[in-house]
């Protein structure tokens, strides 16, 4: 507002005469702008007309001649941030969750830009605000309300976040696995403790070199489940990640590409035929098969028991076992080929 007021103060008759030659293009642009606003309102774009107006004003203010470089940069950044928000009013990256990913990923840039320029403009505005007691009180009142509203988030959200933890007994630490010895959750109506996974994953971190493919069970309940815990906590590649994210990030591929991998994981753990299991192992070059509490909940016992039978026939080797988890290593390709 101050920048616009300073600009308007320069609209003297002498200065305005300099624009006489551009009067027709300017009037045409103004007419197009009004028509565009009318169209946007008719199409029920309620936010876009406001943002478009602010973007144009900020851009014009930033392009004024003889403007100090610092102020020019700030105004152009404001116009750029507003333009980004305008973009997502009309365009969306096609995915499985509507506009959500497009909005928040673009708005992350907007928040960063406006957080910087907001601090700078507040410092610049403060001297002029101090001169008028009424303005200062009103400005401080508005600022106080905004700060108080922002401060409510860490106060209220911390408790809300704490209440949805898998275990409130887990220590407060930067170790992302530290909750597992204390946590249990429900999957398919069964209780799944994570303490056995914790021990097995620690062993894998210390004893499996390189980047071999590890097979683990798949659950659609990936936000409140242990699915993909092997890939997450060891960094080793698996067969399928979180289905929703995979479909978004690989939208160019046919949908059945993801479905096929999910089906192959089910076949690997459910089939009672060793040869069918070996076909999946060869297809994805699997080096280790992980069977934990989650797998026992998701798949039939006869399908999981076959891994012990494959150990007896020399196709697999059990390299780790605790009370709830087994890890099998696929023997070398010669042994697999011999079985075929």
Give an overview of the whole structure.
The protein has 340 residues and is of the alpha+beta class. It has three domains: 2-131, no CATH class; 134-164; 180-339, Rossmann fold (3-Layer(aba) Sandwich). 62% of the residues lie in helices and 8% in strands. It has helices spanning 2-9, 13-17, 23-42, 47-62, 69-90, 100-130, 133-163, 195-207, 229-234, 243-249, 255-270, 274-284, 293-298, 301-312, 333-339; strands spanning 184-187, 190-193, 213-215, 286-291, 316-321, 326-330. Helix 5 (69-90) runs antiparallel to helix 6 and helix 11 (255-270) crosses helix 12 (274-284). It starts with a helix and ends with a helix. The chain crosses the membrane at residues 21-40, 46-63, 75-94, 106-126, 138-156. Keywords: Membrane, Transmembrane, Transmembrane helix. Pfam families: DUF2298. InterPro entries: DUF2298.
Largest sheet: 4 strands, mixed
The proportion of strand residues reads 5-15%
- State the CATH class of the largest domain: Alpha Beta
Overall mean pLDDT score? 88
Strand order in the largest sheet: 3-4-6-5
How many distinct helices? 15
Euclidean distance between termini CA atoms: 78 Å
Number of domain modules:
3
- SSE ordering: HHHHHHHEEHEHHHHEHHEEH
Based on the structure, what is the oligomeric state of the protein chains? single chain
* Amount of helix: 55-70%
Shape: elongated
Return residue spans where pLDDT drops below 50 for at least 5 consecutive residues. Answer: none
Decide which structural class fits the backbone. Answer: alpha+beta
């Amino acid at each position: 507002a101050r920048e616009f007021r300073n600009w308007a103060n320069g609209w003297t008759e002498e200065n305005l005469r300099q624009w006489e030659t551009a009067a027709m293009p300017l009037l045409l642009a103004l007419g197009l702008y009004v028509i565009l606003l009318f169209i946007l309102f008719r199409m029920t774009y309620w936010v876009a007309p406001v943002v478009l107006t602010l973007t144009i004003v900020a851009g014009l203010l930033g392009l004024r001649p003889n403007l100090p470089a610092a102020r020019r940069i700030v105004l152009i950044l404001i116009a750029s941030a507003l333009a980004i928000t305008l973009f997502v009013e009309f365009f969306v990256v096609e995915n499985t969750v509507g506009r959500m990913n497009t909005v928040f990923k673009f708005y992350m840039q907007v928040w960063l830009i406006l957080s910087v320029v907001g601090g700078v403009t507040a410092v610049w505005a403060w001297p002029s605000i101090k001169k008028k007691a009424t303005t200062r009180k009103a400005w401080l009142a508005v600022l106080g309300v905004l700060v108080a509203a922002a401060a409510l988030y860490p106060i209220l959200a911390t408790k809300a976040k704490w209440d949805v933890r898998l275990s409130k007994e887990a220590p407060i630490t930067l170790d992302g696995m530290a909750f597992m010895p204390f946590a249990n959750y429900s999957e398919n109506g069964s209780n799944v403790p994570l303490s056995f996974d914790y021990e097995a994953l620690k062993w894998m971190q210390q004893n499996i070199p390189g980047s071999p493919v590890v097979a683990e069970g798949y659950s659609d309940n990936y936000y409140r489940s242990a699915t993909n815990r092997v890939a997450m906590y060891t960094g080793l590649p698996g067969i399928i990640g979180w289905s929703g994210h995979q479909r978004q990030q690989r939208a160019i591929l046919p949908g059945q590409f993801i479905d096929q991998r999910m089906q192959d994981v089910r076949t690997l753990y459910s089939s009672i035929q060793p040869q069918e299991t070996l076909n999946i192992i060869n297809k994805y070059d699997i080096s280790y098969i992980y069977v934990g509490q989650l797998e026992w909940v998701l798949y039939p016992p006869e399908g999981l028991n076959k891994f012990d039978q494959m150990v007896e026939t020399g196709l697999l080797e059990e390299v780790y076992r605790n009370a709830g988890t087994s890890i099998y290593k696929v023997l070398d390709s010669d042994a697999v080929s011999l079985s075929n």
